[in-house]
Amino acid sequence: MLLINRFKIPLLKKTSPRTKPKPAKRPRRNSNKQLPYEIQELICNILLEDDPTNSIALTCMRVCKSWAMFICERLYREFQFKNYIQFIGFVNTISLKDGALSYGLFVRTLDLSPVNKYGVDMRVRRLIRHCPNMVSITFGQATSVKADTLQLMGRHCHNVHTLEMGGIQSFPFMFDCDFSGMMGLRRLSLMTTPLQSNSLDTIPNSILHLQIAHMDALYHDEFVSFLKNHDHLVSLSVRRCRHLNTDFSAFIGHLPKLTALELAGPEVEDKSLKGLFDIPTELHTLKLCHTQISDGTLEALAAGCLVVHHLDISHNSGITPFGVQSLMRKKQFKQITTSL
After folding, report:
1. pTM, two decimal places
2. 64, 120, 198, 300: which has the fewest C-beta neighbours closer than 10 Å?
């Protein structure tokens, strides 16, 4: 018998090489979250350069939510309208009900001057409702916005501190407007606005800077009464108001905190400025431009007790170089501007 049959040899099994254990998978992390927010914001600013409306803005917004917020803050903060179609798209975007972000919350400043020649009242109402953080708005000249829309700002935009408005197409003569809801209003500019006198009384006492121009419906006594109730004004500008042409000294007599005064237009002359320079107060800036004043006003300024640091008397045809030199010899100024 064969020897191989006498011995039982175990069968040789094929041994597989010992496999190494697989490393445990680490949870995937968003690399953007590892960067400080300041670095992420710097990257966004570099990508956008000086134009936040360039084509890469949409790509950056898709990276992550933090990048989208950085882009929106720059894109919508001071949005500049180029045409009416862009204005319509802007309104539709910020008023989306199911938008990824609340785009209207980023809006701070709006200038409607490029589009106000169209019918914008209904869309401006939507803007006001969806932009509660807006602080400055300019309506421009001959706007189609109605008085009710302006009053809507008092209910939704409590942070507005600057309002610039011109003539209103729907009110070519006179209209009432209630500004009392704008409790944070600091700067107000009214140009060719046909406001009734009782509308001025609704302007809150928080107003610090007031500029009026071409307000032909405003009379001297009405304006003086308004100034008595708003004695916190810091700067006042009156330009080409037909009926504000007498006794300008009554203006600053009720404004103890006034530091800047501008009077412009053919209504300003030597007689209307009589007594203004005898008020013992101090002005940082006094502008008398495009007026009918002569060297007699400069003599009154030199002899008066009104202290002025910066004087602008440019574009006055009645002033001569001799009158300016005489003023500079008698009174000292930090800066004086003339067009002679």
Report:
1. 0.74
2. 198
